[in-house]
Amino acid sequence: TMTAQAKLGFVAAWSSATSYVVGNSVAVGTDVYTCILNHSNHIPPNGTYWTLVNNKVAKPTSSFTAVAKP
Question: Which of 32, 36, 45, 60 has the greatest count of CB atoms below 10 A from its CB?
């Protein structure tokens, strides 16, 4: 079954273990690609399955540290 995130097309790092459907988006390095043909294990930038949406995605400039609640 497909997760809610996959259905909505959330951006995640590309994975060879994921089945992608049209509209899913993935990040590879600093590039974001959107799936244009259902498949699994076809890494971007394979133009049969992916289209480049945006390159050079902004990376966070700061980080945070989780603090345990008392």
Answer: 32
The C-alpha atoms of residue 66 and residue 33 are separated, in whole angstroms, by 31
Contacts of residues 21-25 at CB distance under 8 Å and 24 or more positions apart, as own/partner, are 25/53
* Token pair of 27 as six digits: 């990040």
Q: Are 43 and 31 in contact (CB under 8 A)?
A: no
Among 15, 60, 57, 3, which residue's Cα sits nearest to residue 40? 15
pLDDT per position as a tens digit, 7-40: 445 668 899 998 999 989 888 888 889 999 999 9
Q: What is the pTM of this model?
A: 0.65
User: In the block, which residue shows the tokens 């980080």?
Assistant: 63
